[in-house]
Amino acid sequence: MSLIADIVSGGLTALTGGLERAYIAKLNARNDAERLEAEKQIKFFEGQISLAQTAAANDKWWSTRELIGKCALIYVFKIVVWDTVLKLGVTPDPGPQVTGIVMIVIAFYFGSKAVTDIGAKLLAALTARRGE
After folding, report:
1. Do residues 58 and 65 touch, judged by C-beta distance below 8 A?
2. Residues 71, 75, 77, CA angle at the centre, nearest 5°?
3. How far apart are CA 4 and CA 71, in angstroms?
4. How far apart are the first and last CA of the chain?
5. How many CB atoms lie within 10 A of CB 21?
6. Separation CA 99–CA 62 (nearest Å)
7. Residue of 95, 76, 96 lying closest to 85 (CA atoms)
8. Main-chain dihedrals φ then ψ at residue 3, nearest 5 degrees
């Protein structure tokens, strides 16, 4: 699980870290050329964050991310609700590999949503700070 957290937060750090460095470069610019270059970098990183947010918000039902998430949902529903809560069936233990895969899918599914939400908040905070 820590590997998953590192991967997810690493993607976030790459975008927000670069954006923060670009804002610092703009503040420390000694001339117009450096300021313009920093503004280009700011626009680039803001665009990357916006693309990530749009992609996460506009997944179609047939997209790979959605289909894999739905398969994990069906698996969890069958094991937890059908077998355990309603006691309407018994699913044999699929083994640690299947359980591990489902846990990774769930972590990535919700982790990617968390990353885009955090990225949006950081972008808003950095933009508000830039406006001051």
Report:
1. no
2. 115
3. 19
4. 39
5. 14
6. 23
7. 76
8. -60, -45
CA gyration radius for the chain?
21
Kindly report the pTM of this predicted structure.
Answer: 0.44
Tokens at residue 18, please? 């670069």
The residue to which tokens 């508000």 are assigned: 128
Residue-wise pLDDT for 79-114, tens only, equals 888 998 998 988 888 888 888 888 888 888 777 777
- Nearest residue to 15 (alpha-carbon basis) of 130, 118, 132, 128: 118
Return the ∠ at Cα 77 (arms to 58 and 102), rounded to 5°. 65
- One-letter amino acid at 99 equals T
What is the C-alpha separation between 66 and 80, in angstroms, rounded? 21
